[in-house]
Amino acid sequence: MNTKHSPAFLMANLGSEVARLLSALEKGDKELSEDARNRSEKIIGEVVSSLETGPAKKEVRLLADVIEDFCASKRRYSVSPISLKQYFLPFALRVFN
Which of 36, 65, 75, 81 could form a disulfide with 21 if both were Cys (CB 3.0 to 4.6 A apart)? Predict the structure, then answer.
């Protein structure tokens, strides 16, 4: 069954996956972080495909870059893990309330 999900639902799921990624990175678990990273990339692709406007797609691509930055040896952005997790909170509240 191939169910089409709303962008908000996908973003909430991405938030969960990013939380897993950040947790794995904090623990130094390379296997778990790579798995979470791959799942995050897949969800990001689904989000971009589900969006209709250019500005929204641009925001998600920037978000993908920020998420990728957490996996880099030398970070370019000064986004904290807490800030990134908080970014996703409105999506989760919207979907699950």
Answer: 36
